[in-house]
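User: quick one, fold this
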Amino acid sequence: MTRIRFNEQLSELNKEMIQMGGLCESAIDTCVDALLNGDESLAKEVSKREKEIDEKESEVTALCMKMLLHQQPVASDLRQISAALKMVTDLERIGDQADDIGEMICYTARHTISEHGNIQKMGNATKKMVRDSIDAFVRQDKELAAQVISYDDVVDELFVSIKKSVIDSIDKKSIDGEYASDILMIAKYFERIGDHAVNVAEWVEYSITGVHRKDEEE
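Assistant:
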């Protein structure tokens, strides 16, 4: 009977993780839409998502602690729970980074961002990484987790492309220095979101194998 109850809680944990990942995706989408449309009111919605992500982190943490204290998880279960506890920390930070982007939109709203279309591609790429890393956790799919980690190269390349575009625009005097700095900072925030998604995927791998990549590298 105890195992049945644990499996029910494990299913609940998966649902909570999917919901938290969905909130992160929504925050990223809202950031991109607000940026491209120069919509400051939409940017304020990001802050609401960030608070919802914080609340979901608390809920997931409480559920994990309940599973650890009230059940008797075997080694593989223990890895899955401990990985979830690590993952929600990175998901919460993704919410923070999205909120940071939202706060910057008041400075970029008066400009057109169309010449830096890779910002949108960067947002879509990080959203894909978040979604796939959560799917990998729920499905316990090591291959998908590895794909997320590799996909971070796409985000890094987009960041380099944006940086080159901004530098070129400065040389042509088509944008001012302050706006250029804002765009680079926003791109950097998206790059960090990608890094956190990589962390999530690495913890998924750990939940499956019991070995973390950083341990293998040492």
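User: anything notable?
Assistant: Helices lie at 2-37, 40-70, 75-108, 118-139, 142-171, 177-209, 213-217.
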